[in-house]
Amino acid sequence: MILSQTTSLNVPAFFTAHQLRIRLAVIVLLCLYLIAYAADITWKLIPAPATDNTASSAARSATALSNSSSGSQRGVDINQLQRLKLFGEVNKAAPKPVEQTITDAPETNLNLILSGVVSASSQDAGTAVIENRGKQAIYAVGDKIEATNATLSQVHPDRVIIKNGGRHETLMLQGLDFTKRRAQPPVIASTGNRSASMSPIRDDEEPVELSDEAIAATEALRNKPASFTDYIAVTPALEGGSMAGYKVQPGKDPSLFNSVGLQNGDIVIQINGLDLTDPSQAQEAMGELRNAQSIELTVTRNGEYKSLYLDMPEQ
After folding, report:
1. Is the pLDDT assigned to residue 70 strictly greater than 80?
2. Which of 181, 218, 276, 313 is the most exposed place for a label (fewest CB within 10 A)?
3. In angstroms, what CA-CA distances link 60 with 52, 65, 70, 265?
């Protein structure tokens, strides 16, 4: 009786003394239960991993698909696809048209005078001295002739072909009659014999010293060779229908003409030993004039040969 009362009295006292520990234990057990329940639900939602048989089947399917794709690729004709030009065809650069030699162009009605030509083996490499309204100028192939709508198209030994309003026309060398058959370049049979026959009687003169005006003129010529005709006017000199040289006259600025020692009516036949009656040598002579430090002019004057020497100022 006494023991029963003691036990009943001790239980409430035990819970009272250990209340915090008991609550903590209950909370821990509840958390463990919730975690286990959540894990069970999670595994039910996630599908089970594939078995070995399933993996092997998937691998075999992938291999079969790869083999089928490879077989299809081997069956494609690449060359046939390229011939279809699915992306169009690359435009190849068209070859530059070769301009034909024009021999039957009608004579021009333009009031132009062809004073001289420097033709070459290539028709697009020559130059021409053309006078228009009393003013001479040097033109290269493709240049527009001043105060006209015409351009220089081709240069031949006895004529030039100009393009006037889309039409080709012939301008003959001054002193020559118009013919549809163009003259052929002169053939130099023997350079040695020709040079011997044209050897000038050299004067014992010192090289000419240029005046200040002439030096300014030469510098202007280096910068703008086309202005040559402002200082010296040239016209072809013909003998028996053949080119004998170029007759020179003072231009609108006679300073250079007078300083060189030229006289009105002199016929220049050589420049630095290059024969001006030969188109190829004449072309070479024109190129030398730009960089030459000294110039030797061979002229005929009153039937006699005469050499003139000129020291060019340094550039």
Report:
1. no
2. 181
3. 12, 9, 15, 106
